[in-house]
Specification:
heterodimer, A: mainly beta, six-stranded mixed beta sheet, five-stranded antiparallel beta sheet, 11 strands, about 55% strand, globular, B: mainly beta, seven-stranded mixed beta sheet, four-stranded antiparallel beta sheet, about 0% helix
């Protein structure tokens, strides 16, 4: 089983739709979680950290479910500019290691 | 401006010709790391460094070397590049502590023929 798993997609959604991605992780000792956005062949950029109580940043909401070992990203009122690959990143303190999922591709269409 | 700078952006070379990809950060971060990204495999860690003169292997270190003589610089060295090292490479840095996110350089696309 992979340490961090994501559905690769692509998710094709119309503009204005609400879309959600999940990411599962295998190590119950994982401590910190992040969502990154990556545009085609460019560097990943931090979208948001994921806090235990859940957090929101504009149209984006991130949640953590430790019991089921997954994190989620919800995008409301999606825009064409949201088209990108979304990477889930998990930090495990014991090995001081950041592990990346392979990403979920989102395509927002007119 | 806080940034991680990689050079070159694009590099085409031949098998066996030693090359170095430079990485520099101006955020005084202790932690620096190199990743390669290949289709379907995501980002895989090559080497990382917790501080000056402290480096360690990541998941795919074979065929690569690194050094950390100064805090700001973390070059990636390919002593004898091979075609299977053709990839997109990213350098990244962050402050210590699990809650700190990674800051990435803008990538180096390497082709080895």
């Amino acid at each position: 089983r992979k340490e961090v798993e994501q559905d690769p997609g692509p998710f094709n959604v119309p503009e204005g739709a609400t879309v959600a991605f999940n990411c599962t992780y295998s190590n119950s000792a994982s401590q910190s979680f992040f969502w990154y956005r990556q545009d085609c062949r460019k560097e990943p950029k931090l979208l948001m950290s994921v806090y235990s109580s859940g957090n929101e940043d504009g149209r984006f909401t991130a949640q953590l479910n430790r019991a089921s070992q997954y994190i989620s990203l919800l995008i409301r009122d999606s825009k064409l500019s949201d088209s990108a690959t979304y990477l889930c990143v998990v930090f495990t303190g014991g090995g001081n290691k950041l592990t990346f999922g392979t990403g979920t591709q989102l395509k927002v269409e007119l | 401006e806080a940034q991680v700078t990689q050079n070159p952006r694009y590099l085409i070379t031949v098998t066996g010709k030693k090359l170095t990809v430079t990485c520099s950060q101006n955020m005084n971060h202790e932690y620096m790391s190199w990743y390669r990204q290949d289709p379907g495999l995501g980002l895989r860690q090559i080497y990382y460094s917790m501080n000056v003169e402290v480096t360690d292997k990541g998941d795919v270190p074979e065929g690569y070397k690194v050094s950390r003589k100064e805090k700001r610089n973390f070059p990636l060295i390919l002593e004898s590049p091979s075609p299977n090292q053709t990839s997109l490479y990213f350098c990244a840095s962050r402050r210590p502590g699990g809650g700190s996110p990674l800051h990435f350089g803008n990538g180096t696309r390497l082709t080895v023929t």
